[in-house]
Fold:
Amino acid sequence: MWEWWRKNRVVLLGLLLLLAALLWYSVSLRQQKETSFFETLLLEATGPVQSAFTSLVRSTADIWGSYINLVDTEQQNRRLREQNSLLKSELNQLKEISLENQRLRRLLEFKKTQPVKTLPARVIAEDATSWFRTVVIDKGYADQVHEGQPVVAAEGVVGRVIRNGPHESRVLLITDAASAVAALVQDSRSRGICRGQGRALSFDFVLRKEPLELGEAVITSGMGGVFPKGLLIGHVSSVNRMEFGLFQAVEIMPAVDFSRLEEVLVLLREVEP
Structure:
């Protein structure tokens, strides 16, 4: 302790003298009307120190205030980004709901035009290779879905049920190579068979003399016992009347966009007369 006092006594005595002078100055300032010579010297000596101290305090306060504002701004920006992400997610959900409602509305309107009992279903899986094309729907024999029943969408024919379980069924698309649908041209009534070709359909057994035009609608003929008559299959996309042979080569573009297929109707049975 004595050693510390010996090392710091000059500084401590200086501080004590400065404190005493400030106290004396404070007391005398209240009693004197004029500034003394000593007070003038003291003001001149302490003025720069007080000014520097005041500037230091103000600078520190400004820096601290800027830091607080920066932290508050960053927190506010983070909250705004979180709110923006949440609003975008909600907007996407609302958009998806709106699009689904539009599809279901079209499907409901199509359902009202069918003289058969129908069952709505959702596509839950697909197996679409270059030739073998099927989808899986979320209805099975527990929902009265059985093999051979036709499946349609608001746009037209989708396919037929080929396998079913209690709550799932596999549907063979009309674009599959194993699919064949009896069809006719809606305007000219030219008959033929639509067979799957992967992405499109071939319209086979149409006589060369039959006049076909691009864009003509092709519908189910009702023959074969699977699809009711009058369902839209697609439209004529190409016609090749060969020089020889009885038939012409016709390609049909399906009315249904199978890459965007989400909801379908299963035609369960015809209404009894």
Summary: The first strand starts at residue 116 and ends at 128. The domain at 116-273 is CATH 2.40.10.350 (Thrombin, subunit H).
